Amino acid sequence: MFKAAIFDMDGLLIDSERIIMQACIAAASEFGIAYTPSDYVELIGRAAPDSTRIMTAQLGGEAQFKQVIQRVDELLNDEANHFPLKAGALEIIQHFHAQNIPCGVASSSYQPVIKHRLSQVGIIQYFNAITSGDEVQRGKPHPDIYLLALEKLGIAAKDSIAFEDSEFGARAAIAAGLNVVVVPDLKQPSEFVIENSFRVLNSLHDAKAFMLGICS
């Protein structure tokens, strides 16, 4: 049914959002700044420049932002912190691979970060194209990153399926014209996303079962 599959990375393929969120909360606390899960959720799915702008305002200014981010980096670089695959991620990727359906990644993260994280969890070899936030002028929820991913794969939007966990990511894929499957992570999708998505599922385990169902 589909000729290509495109995946978001953080919060969808890799269980990183919770770890990063806790690092932000802990780092801010060390500098006497109250930072909450609700604050962090505002950043999910956004391009790096937008996240920087918002978090700078949340923390009270550029100086505080620099202090907190430096500490966040230190906490995340601790060997005890690693980003595991989300449940069902490998299975759904291998499903497409077995069907000779090309797969891509469309993530707001920077290209080196994407490649590092995908390599760490041993799945980078499954992807025919990796598209990052630093390759486009406008990040999610604008469609640019998905349009570029489609261009790299050489597949039309109507023939492609996108998997997203965030509101902004889902809106970007919807705007680009893809069939969108949403697997929420830290935040449930809006009514707009629910109404304009191909399906909203509880997990990537469900995604594989769903794909087997529509292809049978």
Name the helix and strand elements from N-terminus to C-terminus, one letter apiece. Answer: EHHHHHEHEHEHEHEH
Shape: globular
Please identify which CATH superfamily of the largest domain we are dealing with: HAD superfamily/HAD-like
What is the count of β-strands?
6
Mean pLDDT: 93
Spans where pLDDT lies below 50 across 5 or more residues: none
Count of spatially separate domains:
2
Rg computed from alpha carbons, rounded to a whole number of angstroms: 17 Å
Query: Widest sheet: strand order?
Result: 3-2-1-4-5-6
The number of helical segments is 10
Main sheet characteristics:
6 strands, parallel
| CATH hierarchy: architecture of the largest domain | 3-Layer(aba) Sandwich
